[in-house]
Write a structure and sequence with these properties.
The chain is α/β, with parallel strands linked by helices. About 20% of the residues lie in helices and about 25% in strands. The radius of gyration is 20 Å and the shape is globular. Bound molecules: zinc ion (2 copies).
C-alpha cells in the first residue's frame, strides 16, 4: 500500500532508518540508536552509539551509569548520518530533553514525535510544528474521552486539599522523570514556596533538572524530616510508593496521583487515590487531532497507544494514515 518512504521502516522493535543503518527508540540493543527522550521505554541502554539531546544523554547516564557511545545533538542542530540522511532534533514539549526527530532523505521529510504534548511545561521548551511528508505520532491518550484539564486547575485542587487539612500531608504519586519536576515547578509558579518533601527515589532526577537550569525551589528528603514537619506539607513519591510501608511514616496522608489516567475513575480507585489529579505529559485527544491538522502531513503513522480511534479520525477527515505495530512501549510516563 505504501510504496514510497521505503527508506524508513517500522519494525516491531523500533523504526529503522535504512540507509543510515540506525533505529529510532529501539526496544533492543542496536549498533546505532536515535533516542527521542529519557523514559525507559524509549531510551534503553546498551547501544553502540546513541544520538540524543545532551539532556537526554545526561538522563540516560544517570540511569545506566555509562556515557559510552553518546553523541549529543542540540535542539535545532542538523547532523548528517551515513546514507545521506540528515537528522534534526526539535522540541517535543514532553519532558526535559525530549525531542521529535526530523529525518530528511532524497527530498522527503519524516518526523517521529516520540512522546509529546502541546500544553505548556516550565521544565522544557514547547513542541514545534514541523511540516513533513510522514508524521509518526504517538497516541497514548488517543480516545475522545481523554481531555486533560488546564494544569492550573489541578494544581489549585492540590493546594486547596493542603489548606483544608493543616494536620495532614498531601502525598502526590508522580513519575520520577518529568511528572514530578513539572508538578513541583507548577506549584512554584502557583506561589507555593514552602519546602517540598521528596521520597529518596526522586532526589537524583530532581538534582539533574536543577543542574540543567530548572529551578525547583526548596526540596528536602522525607527521611530528614522532624516529627511534625510534614503536617501541612506536600510530599512527592513514585506511584509505587503510594500504598507501601514507606508512606506509613507520614502524618495521615491525603493520597493524590498526577497522571492522565486519573481521568478514569477506576484507575484512581485501584490505587486508593483520594485526590486524582489529571496531569499528563502526553497530548490528549484534542491535541493529537489538532497536531495532525497543524503538521498537515501527506500521511500519518500512528503508534504507541490507542491507534484505532485516531486512525478512524484520520479516515473520516480524508487523511492518509496507518497504525504501526511497535511493541514494548509502556506508559512509564503518563
Ligand atoms: Zn512513551
Ligand atoms: Zn515519554
Amino acid at each position: 500500500m505504501i510504496a514510497d518512504f521505503a527508506w524508513i521502516r517500522p519494525e516491531p522493535h523500533g523504526i529503522q532508518v535504512v540507509p543510515a543503518d540506525c533505529w529510532i527508540d529501539p526496544s533492543q540493543a542496536v549498533a546505532n540508536a536515535l533516542v527521542t527522550h529519557g523514559h525507559a521505554d524509549h531510551a534503553r541502554g546498551g547501544h553502540g552509539r546513541t544520538v540524543a539531546t545532551p539532556e537526554t544523554l545526561a538522563i540516560m547516564e544517570l540511569r545506566y551509569q555509562t556515557r559510552e557511545g553518546a553523541l549529543p545533538v542540540n535542539y535545532g542542530e542538523t547532523i548528517r548520518l551515513p546514507g545521506e540522511v540528515d537528522v534534526t532534533y526539535v522540541p517535543a514539549g514532553h519532558v526535559l530533553g525530549s525531542a521529535q526527530i526530523v529525518l530528511e532523505h532524497a527530498g522527503e521529510r519524516v518526523v517521529v514525535t516520540g512522546d509529546y504534548k502541546r500544553s505548556s511545561d516550565p521544565t522544557c521548551p514547547p513542541f514545534e510544528v514541523v511540516p513533513c511528508d510522514v508524521f509518526v505520532t504517538e497516541a497514548t491518550f488517543g480516545l475522545p474521552v481523554f481531555s486533560h484539564p488546564p494544569i492550573e486547575t489541578e494544581i489549585a485542587k492540590l493546594l486547596k486539599a493542603r489548606a483544608d487539612h493543616p494536620d495532614r500531608c498531601v502525598l502526590v504519586g508522580a513519575y520520577a522523570l518529568g511528572k514530578a519536576q513539572r508538578v513541583i515547578a507548577e506549584l512554584r509558579r502557583a506561589g507555593h514556596h514552602d519546602v517540598i518533601w521528596l521520597h529518596g527515589a526522586m532526589e537524583r532526577m530532581c538534582r539533574l533538572y536543577e543542574e540543567w537550569g530548572i529551578d525547583l525551589g526548596a526540596l528536602r528528603l522525607v527521611t530528614d524530616a522532624g516529627k511534625d514537619e510534614l503536617r501541612g506539607a506536600i510530599v512527592i513519591c513514585p506511584p509505587s510508593a503510594l500504598n507501601d510501608r514507606w508512606s506509613r511514616r507520614l502524618p495521615d496522608p491525603i493520597t493524590a496521583m498526577a497522571s492522565g489516567w486519573m481521568r478514569i475513575r477506576q484507575r484512581a480507585r485501584q490505587r486508593n487515590v483520594e485526590l486524582p489529579l489529571v496531569i499528563s505529559d502526553h497530548a490528549d485527544w484534542g491535541e493529537l487531532t489538532r497536531t495532525i491538522e497543524d503538521v498537515n502531513p501527506h500521511e500519518s503513522w500512528i503508534t504507541h497507544g490507542r491507534e484505532e480511534a485516531l486512525l478512524r479520525w484520520c479516515q473520516l477527515h480524508q487523511r492518509r494514515a496507518r497504525a504501526l505495530a511497535l511493541v514494548g512501549y509502556e506508559d512509564e510516563d503518563d
